[in-house]
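Support request, please re-run this one:
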Amino acid sequence: MTLTIRLLGRPSLAGPDGPVAPPRGAKAWGLLAYLLLSERPATRRELAGLLFATADDPLAALRWSLAELRRALGEPDGLRGDPPRVVLPPGAVVDVALLGADGPVAPEWLRRLGGELLEGLSYASSPAFEAWLSIERRHLAAASEALLREAALAELAAGRAAAAVRLASDAVALNALDEGHHELLVRSLAATGDRAAALAAAARCDELLRRELGVPPSPAVRRAAYASDGAPARPPGGGRAAAAGQLDAGLAAAAAGAVEAAVERLRRACAEAAACGDHELRGRALVALGTTLVHAVRGRDEEGAAVLHQAIAVAERAGDRATSAAAHRELGYIDVQAGRRERAAHWLAQAEALADSDGELAAVRGVQGMNDSDRADYPAALERLGESAERAERCGRQRQAAWSLSLVGRVHLLRGEDALAAAAIDRSLALVESERWLAFRPWPETLRAELEARGGEVDAAADRLERAFTVACQVEDPCWEGVSARAIGLLEARRGRADVARAWLAEALTRCTRVSDPYEWAHAYVLDAVAGTAATAGDGRARGAAEELRVLAARTGMRELVVRAHVHLGRLGEDGMLDSARLLAHEIDNPLLADLLAP
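Re-run finished. Output below.
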């Protein structure tokens, strides 16, 4: 290892023989962090304006800081040209890069997670940079937590419960208000065989969340103290045929919406397959159980993730690529929903490498496109979602095609491309109708209603949203309930009914967050509507909603929604917010943002 760059905690440089003299000046460190973390190369003029605008000669100040970095990094030929690029010596390690690593991270680095980006440094004279730094600090803190969570789940799946306890405890220490971290700690303690310690940890979580947030944790935290490897109510004894029968029965029950029966039968299938030593069948049963917990039972994503980690370990022993691909994809889906972008990309890249059929690749591309769309990489999202829909239709996976087309429609809707959005959403709705997929219908219906409202078809939109919200409530999907209630609230605001709009938007926020594992993009999408509508109406709640949106979007890597939060705050009078919004919007290909950022 020739050079180690630490930006988490107090920044420092180290070589093979010990500490290296750092660059002089806080702004040199800020410049290095920006160059390493920014997705879009910045020109010298942009960098000078970002960090050195108050200097007598901003470009000269930039040149001095670049020279300092070349000296400290030991790379005399680096950071030249326009835009300047960081050139690191072979074997160099940058701690922030490890947070997005495609693979396991060494234990000694895991133990160092938790420090704030450029800890102790501030940039009051550069408000746009200060705003960027605030976003990156939140995002990297969340990425650190995600890496610890993932490592703990892997240790749990490998049967190393004590190691899982240590990692889960570190995650709780980083963010004690994240219920999922507590659930993982309780599950890990239970796996050591110490149920009393697990119940005590659940009680501490309950006391903490009630005191700090005014709400109790979901039942999943205490339930984790009784977690087991799918043990059935009575000892297995039927062999492989019995396991296969339980698996088929569980899948049929899940398809019919009999969720509790499905979970019970799939747990039995896992135990029967384990008892008879059939690793391939056990892996398939574990994937089916994990998938059912994630998609059919709200509030149980963490339990589902633990099962899917176990499925990967079993499938790898059996050499079953298809089962491993499905488990990797589902773990990616969990992370997309939670806004853990780097970990989602890691799991989905692994799933892509393992997939060997149109059906599986269609599913993987769909989740990758969802992740791209959530983080506002719209060109990548359209490419992947288009491929997903094409592959799905080619192999007869109509539901997958409908799902991916709805997200194509969402991208075009967000970009103001209404004709393209309508074509994709109408095709999605036609497939939903042919498949009689009632549980999914509220989502494309809501998107279509948003287009109708934008086009002035207010009555048609109102009728469609009433249907969508009613069905969403019937199938008890908090995400669909939230987004349809949001659209109703915006429609009422358009009609001039401010009080009714406010009530619907409050309802939307309550519904989309009523589970411990919400779809964070939907949560932020509702917050954006709440902040914008409140600001327009002169409602004092606008600032709180906009700040909540800024924190959530920063942590979960939702770049466009970060920009929108900054716009709301800037229009409410906060200094530097509109400048930072324009800076951040440069990385997003969305024509509507130009209108939003106009003076």
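Residues 127-157 form the longest helix (31 residues). Strands lie at 4-6, 12-15, 18-20, 93-94.
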